[in-house]
Specification:
Helix content: 10-25%
Number of strands: 3
Strand content: 15-25%
Order of helices and strands: HEEEH
Strand order of the largest sheet: 1-2-3
Distance between the termini: 49 Å
Length: about 100
Amino acid sequence: MGKHSRPGPPNQPSRAVPRVDGGDPLAAYNKRRRPPLDQYRRHRPLHGGGGHLRPDEPRALEEWSGFSYEPAGAAPDLAAAQRWVNEQVSGECGDESPSAA
């Protein structure tokens, strides 16, 4: 086994091998526009610290714009923020508007 052959998580495709379509001239550009770890929505505590700490405090909601994460609203607590993150299955559906609880 070589030093670079580490197995990744079983539920995610490997990011070491680029998923590029040879027939698409913009495939490399589209690959660079994917969010880190293919996570289109995320939440952060407003007052810093770990995301699992103080679950009753408000959270900032952020959505991937194609270049960076942008503010999309606020949630009153951790449970509402997690519901918002999980309600959109794919980040490529542009017709859903972000709803902050």
